[in-house]
Design goal:
The structure is a single chain. It is built from 27 helices and 20 strands. The strands form five sheets. Strands 1-3-2-4-5 form a five-stranded mixed beta sheet, sandwiched between helices. Helix 7 crosses helix 8. Major role in the synthesis of nucleoside triphosphates other than ATP.
Length: 614
């Protein structure tokens, strides 16, 4: 009961116009979570808000939830599926944040509270903003930046250049070496595309280094990186080299200072570092990590833009494509061929049987339209193929290829478009979906490809020689290691862990092998984590792995079908069961429940099957 009382006082509940006016009259900064009645407030940030409130202990900071359906002034927020946080000071809107971005939310709360206190204490002018995200998108020529970024300069990385993220750490800044290091960076031929001085909160440092959460030094690293100001730089090379990431890592030298002094005495770490933790500088490990780090520090960055002949910029981005059930059954491969020939990369792919409630949730802005019943019937008539497509200008390019949403109009005006080609007779609904904007695309992709958790095991045969290499590749592929445990399994635990194979002839041999020595159990988190990890492992039989997926972990590290280095869950339900068995309950943020996707777990066989999880 005490916990519920604390949560109730943390966020005031606003459900009518009178309460709304009262909350805006509150002195100080009020952060309002605007929500729809059908989905409720954003529960994912409640613990963060409580932490911020406890840490700041400021009576001028207030939190509230507001139900858009019952408050007239919030009418334009109705039907919006994305979490929205409105910041009010003195009854005026001073900032807006969309999405449950915890580090950004924390940063904005601290910054806006400081601004509001200055207004109250010194009588300064309060900067009032408009929520540009609510303007008529159909009449917008360009997509607006989020409100809290509209006065920040965009970081634009040209298509001809690769980039990496560099950090001059707090130890080097504290010793007055930042400018000296920057001069050496420029002298070495690196081009500085962006440069800012920042200070991380402990929460931000923990989020930035989450890929190192499993390492022994993680807590020390978090404390160090939040201990003082540092310099963040986005680097390319003057000559536009495609290898800027390895070039920068070579220039800074090994993370271990003694190794750096021995192997690369001219490197930055050898010259300015004092020990492994206080090693002066940071560099992205690979291009994927560089992209994530750039997005973390510069959320308004724009990657790899090229100027089209008509003068408009086209950006590398993702869009959601849906192939609806009727054509997914008959024309799937033909449509996929069109997608590949149009220059798209299929970044994520999933076949899903949607429930009526999920269709209503996904198409929440269309439920009152006359065509919605037909759309609902179509979307629930069979499996839908969902694709996250990536290329420059993906959203607009996919919309162009699709053609008009009205089938008759598509046939008349653009007979070669996909919607005209794959129209189904006597069906008024077009058979392909595309996102309407970049913002909408990311929201829709998150709906079909939410963050997923899967179990990974580094088996006893790989622990001694390949553990570090496997962990490094896991981090490099964008997985977050949210739980980790090194253990020697008892026979009882191994039998329970592999219980689905109990009746198979190899069961005893498998159990004995897994009890032979220490193994490492991990919970990995990523979009489409189950399939991504299975693809990374490769087939169970290393001989087949070498033929079908030579870069997979099993192709490179496995000795035979039993000693095959790694294990992964075969589907999301299996992953949830194993996570509970190993670690107890771990909450996930998946939007599609475990029984929503069509299971891709094949029928069990009588031998060790590469499609199973051993």
């Amino acid at each position: 009961m005490a916990g519920k009382k604390k949560e109730a006082t943390l966020q005031a509940s606003v459900t009518n116009q009178e309460q709304w006016e009262e909350i805006l009259a509150t002195k100080g900064l009020t952060v309002v979570d605007v929500y729809q009645q059908w989905c409720g407030p954003c529960r994912a940030v409640v613990s963060l808000l409580r932490k911020i409130k406890n840490e700041l202990g400021d009576d001028l900071l207030h939190f509230a939830t507001a139900e858009a359906d019952s408050i007239d002034v919030l009418e334009r927020y109705r039907g919006k599926c994305e979490p929205t946080f409105l910041f009010y000071g003195g009854g005026e809107l001073v900032a807006v944040l969309r999405g449950a971005n915890a580090p950004m939310l924390q940063r904005m709360i601290v910054e806006e509270l400081a601004k509001e206190k200055l207004v109250l204490e010194q009588g300064g002018e309060r900067k009032v903003v408009k929520d540009n995200g609510l303007t008529d998108e159909e009449n917008k020529e360009e997509e607006e930046l989020p409100q809290h970024l509209e006065n920040e300069e965009s970081v634009i990385v040209p298509a001809s250049k690769s980039y990496t993220v560099a950090i001059i750490k707090p130890d080097a800044v504290a010793h007055g070496k930042a400018n000296e290091i920057i001069m050496k960076i420029q002298d070495a031929g690196f081009e500085i595309l962006a440069h800012e001085e920042r200070t991380l909160t402990e929460a931000e440092a923990r989020d930035f280094y989450q890929h190192k959460a499993a390492e022994a030094c993680f807590e020390d690293l978090v404390q160090f990186m939040s201990s003082g100001p540092f310099h963040i730089l986005v680097l390319s090379q003057v000559e536009g080299s495609a290898a800027v990431v390895p070039a920068w890592r070579e220039f800074i030298g090994p993370a271990d200072i003694e190794e750096a002094k021995r192997e690369n005495p001219e490197s930055l770490r050898a010259q300015y570092g004092t020990e492994t933790l206080f090693n002066a500088v940071h560099g992205s490990e690979d291009s994927d990590q560089a992209s994530r780090e750039l997005a973390f520090f510069f959320p308004n960055f724009r990657t790899a833009s090229v100027m089209e002949q008509d003068g408009e910029e086209e950006h590398v981005e993702r869009t959601l494509a849906l192939i609806r059930p009727d054509v997914a059954r008959e024309n799937r491969e033909e449509i996929l061929d069109h997608i590949h020939k149009s220059g798209f990369i299929i970044a994520l792919q999933k076949e899903v049987m949607l429930s009526e409630e999920q269709v209503r949730q996904f198409y929440c802005q269309h439920v009152e339209e006359d065509y919605f019943p037909a759309l609902l019937q179509t979307m629930t008539s069979g499996p839908v193929l969902a694709l996250a497509l990536a290329r420059k200008g993906a959203v607009s390019h996919w919309k162009t290829i699709l053609g008009p949403s009205d089938i008759n109009k598509a046939k008349e005006e653009s007979p070669d478009c996909l919607r005209a080609q794959f129209a189904v007779e006597n069906k008024p609904i077009n058979q392909l979906h595309g996102s309407g904007s970049r913002e909408e695309a990311e929201r829709e992709i998150s709906f079909f490809f939410p963050k997923q958790q899967t179990v990974a095991v580094i088996k006893p045969d790989a622990m001694e020689e390949h553990r570090e290499a496997i962990l490094e590749e896991i981090r490099g592929r964008g997985f977050s290691v949210t739980r980790l445990k090194e253990t020697v399994l008892s026979r009882e635990m191994a039998e329970e862990f592999y219980k689905e194979h109990r009746e198979k002839p190899f069961f005893n041999q498998l159990v004995e092998f897994m009890c032979r020595g220490p193994c490492m159990m991990l919970v990995l988190t990523k979009e489409n984590a189950v399939e991504e990890w299975r693809a990374m492992m490769g087939p169970t039989d290393p001989n087949k792995a070498k033929e079908a997926s030579p870069e997979s972990l099993r192709a490179r590290f496995a000795a035979d079908i039993l000693h095959n280095s790694v294990h992964g869950s075969s589907n999301e339900q299996h992953a949830e069961e194993k996570i509970r068995f190993i670690f107890g309950d771990i909450s996930t943020d998946a939007e599609l429940t475990s029984d929503d996707p069509i299971s891709d777990d094949p029928q069990t066989g009588g031998s060790i099957d590469p499609e199973h999880s051993n």
